[in-house]
Amino acid sequence: MIKNILITGGAGNLGRVVSEELKDRYNITLFDRTRPQDAPIPWETNLPFVLGDLTDFGDCMRGIAQAKADAVLHFGALAGPTELMPPRYQQRMR
């Protein structure tokens, strides 16, 4: 039975909407490289949050472990054209 859910892209708009819909039925943990209050459209939440980078395997494993995740809802993405991203992300995307 699924009880604990990790939401990647948790600080984004989709992460916010989905977490609000699920928080009364599941234990939700948000994962993102930006805190919700620092997101382009800031928002406040009391949900557990793991600061991490999806392109870093260790961060991903730490997020899964901290959430004790039974399931992961993956909404994380790097927005925009690859050539406009910082070089460290360009290299990891190739």
Describe the structure.
- The chain is an alpha/beta fold and 94 residues long.
- The chain has helices at residues 13-22, 57-67, 87-93; strands at residues 4-8, 27-32, 49-51, 71-74.
- Strands 3-2-1-4 form a 4-stranded parallel β-sheet, with helices on both faces.
- β1, α1 (13-22) and β2 (27-32) form a beta-alpha-beta unit.
- The longest helix is centred in the middle third of the chain and has 11 residues, at 57-67.
Number of helices: 3
Adjacency order of strands in the biggest sheet: 3-2-1-4
- What order do the helices and strands follow? EHEEHEH
Looking at CATH, the homologous superfamily is: NAD(P)-binding Rossmann-like Domain
Instruction: Compute the number of strand runs.
Output: 4
Structural category is alpha/beta
Summarize the structure.
The chain has 94 residues and is α/β, with parallel strands linked by helices. It has helices at 13-22, 57-67, 87-93, and strands spanning 4-8, 27-32, 49-51, 71-74.
Provide tags for this entry:
94 residues; alpha/beta; Rossmann fold; four-stranded parallel sheet; 3 helices; 19% strand; globular
SSE map:
Elements: E1 4-8, H1 13-22, E2 27-32, E3 49-51, H2 57-67, E4 71-74, H3 87-93
